[in-house]
TrEMBL record:
Alphabetized InterPro entries for the sequence: EmrE
Protein name: Drug/metabolite transporter (DMT)-like permease
Assigned keywords, A-Z: Membrane, Transmembrane, Transmembrane helix
One Pfam family of this chain: EmrE
Transmembrane helix keyword on record: yes
Chain ranges passing through the membrane: 35-56, 68-89, 95-116, 137-153, 159-178, 199-218, 230-250, 262-283, 289-309
Length: 324
């Protein structure tokens, strides 16, 4: 149950991202700065946490020895996750982004066959043991997505090609990239680093991309405003540090159990609830319809079922030929 609670707590702090990114866009802020500033702030914030815990040296040792691996999966897990999210904030309301983001629930389950039990190097009698899709958990994920669909249905008439290209498609890319990058780095570090160290290392490894985005933002829009500097700092603290670390800790607790891991990723559906309430309060959006509230209830039921049945024993492993 602890991983589920950590996942819900992470969802609350992740929700701040959607609200503040939308707020910054409405105020005329550049999405390039909204994306890059968050990670510039995260370097000292996470660095202080790791330094206080006395764990800085192992991070830089890992980065020096395998920077290519860190750069690759940090680019996937952080850059392809957050750059599309901030870009999409300029074209759709926060609740639309947050609800579309729930595709990560199904994506996390469908990514399971791309990983081997334990780690990518494990062998058993000359065969690699590949994990199987947790179909029980996937069924509950689909239930959650059905609730998300109900939440969006009242505004379905507003969905057009532009919205599909500028909101739905970028968020889908982010929804797949985040669990993929997170899981790959979890495997590559093989528990040598804790959640704080891994988040710190991935932030450093992704810095070249954020510098590029900052340069583009400066050329196109000039320096960030004081309001954008302050709001991106709040995003960095709440979402970039607190939520990221909580989510990493939750996934670490069940990294070898695909059912429980899918359950943790399913808790991110709570973001839609937090964002809906926050957007009604801070950005004065319309009150959700009855259909939307039913959708929220379906989401919560799906989360409960994921949590309850996630206590079952791990799915039976299926050996796979090395040649496949």
């Amino acid at each position: 149950m602890r991983p589920i609670l950590l996942g819900i707590a992470a969802a609350f702090f992740f929700g701040v991202t959607f609200l503040l990114n939308r707020s910054m866009d409405l105020a005329g802020g550049s999405w390039h700065w909204s994306a890059s500033l968050r990670f510039f702030y995260m370097v000292p914030l996470l660095g202080i946490i790791v330094w206080v815990r006395g764990n800085v040296r192992p991070v830089f040792q890992e980065l020096r020895s395998r920077f290519g691996v860190w750069f690759l999966w940090s680019s996937v897990g952080f850059v392809l996750f957050y750059a599309p999210i901030t870009y999409a904030a300029g074209f759709g309301e926060a609740w639309l982004l947050a609800s579309t983001w729930q595709i990560t629930i199904v994506a996390g389950s469908l990514l399971v066959p791309f990983f081997y039990d334990g780690n990518d190097k494990q062998e058993a009698k000359g065969k690699l043991i590949r994990q199987k899709i947790p179909f029980k958990g996937l069924g509950f994920s689909l239930l959650i997505l059905a609730g998300v669909g109900l939440v969006q249905f009242h505004d379905a008439n507003g969905v057009n090609l532009s919205l599909l290209l500028h909101v739905v498609l970028p968020v889908i890319v982010a929804a797949v990239a985040y669990p993929l990058g997170n899981r790959k780095m979890m495997i590559e570090t093989n528990k040598r680093l804790d959640a704080f160290q891994r988040a710190f290392g991935m932030t450093i490894a992704s810095l070249p991309w954020w510098i590029v985005l900052a340069v583009i933002g400066w050329v196109q829009s000039g320096p960030p405003t004081s309001g954008q500097l302050w709001q991106t700092f709040l995003v960095a603290v709440s979402s970039g540090v607190i939520a990221t670390v909580l989510f990493f800790q939750a996934t670490d607790l069940c990294s070898n159990d695909p059912v429980k891991l899918a359950g943790v990723e399913a808790t991110q559906s709570a973001e839609i609830v937090f964002v809906l309430l926050g957007e009604m309060w801070l950005l004065s959006v319309a009150t959700p319809t009855l259909l939307s509230l039913i959708g929220v209830a379906v989401i919560m039921i799906g989360m409960f079922l994921h949590s309850y049945f996630g206590k079952s024993k791990p799915i039976e492993k299926k050996p796979m030929n090395l040649a496949n």
